[in-house]
Design goal:
mainly beta; 8-stranded antiparallel beta sheet; 3-stranded mixed beta sheet; 2 helices; 13 strands
Length: 187
């Protein structure tokens, strides 16, 4: 069941993949929990300085408590991340959850829980904050495609690896127009 929900989410996110070609794309995702709308994520992708930037604002209500995250990501033209920052936003504070800065293909500076450490990397890794913002997965799929669809990707922070796979294509009709949705899974 969990995998099915992830595949559906990635199908919805994949709708935004085709729109990345322009100078700027802005969109929003409706967040549901137990089939009820609980929040939104609004994001913008800009093509600039020979690469891309993602700005995202993710907010939903969970049992009366607001979860609010803001994130930014800068990438090269091939979607290799150069910087990722994700903040938790509360009524009175904005707290850094994770920052990853890549200085090339061999090292990265990772900041979590107020501590920064250097990490050696064998290949250009992808930087991904756990869970949110959701739109960073769009950049992950673009990175995977731009790098020849490798079997596994190194992820920062941490020393994890993920796999991305094409799961199929569905067609939905919206306003009388057929729109293909490509499904991906990320493990």
């Amino acid at each position: 069941m969990k995998r099915d929900r992830r595949a559906l989410l990635l199908s919805v996110l994949a709708c935004g993949l085709a729109r990345f070609a322009g100078a700027q794309t802005s969109d929003s995702l409706r967040i549901y929990y137990v089939a009820r709308p609980v929040g939104w994520e609004k994001y913008t992708v800009d093509a600039r300085d020979g690469g891309h930037s993602l700005t995202a604002d993710f907010s939903y209500i969970d049992r009366g408590r607001r979860i609010h995250r803001q994130g930014t990501m800068a990438t090269r033209a091939d979607y290799t991340p150069t910087k990722l920052e994700v903040f938790n936003v509360a009524d009175t504070a904005r707290t850094l959850l994770v920052r990853v800065e890549l200085d090339g293909a061999s090292t990265a500076a990772v900041t979590q829980r107020g501590r920064t450490h250097k990490v050696s990397v064998a290949q250009p890794p992808f930087a991904l904050s756990p869970y949110t913002p959701l739109s960073q997965h769009l950049m992950l799929i673009r990175y995977w495609r731009a790098h020849g669809k490798p079997k596994a990707l190194t992820m920062l922070p941490g020393d994890g690896r993920v796999t991305v796979a094409l799961a199929g294509t569905d067609t939905v009709t919206v306003g009388g127009h057929a729109t293909p949705l490509t499904r991906y899974t990320i493990d």
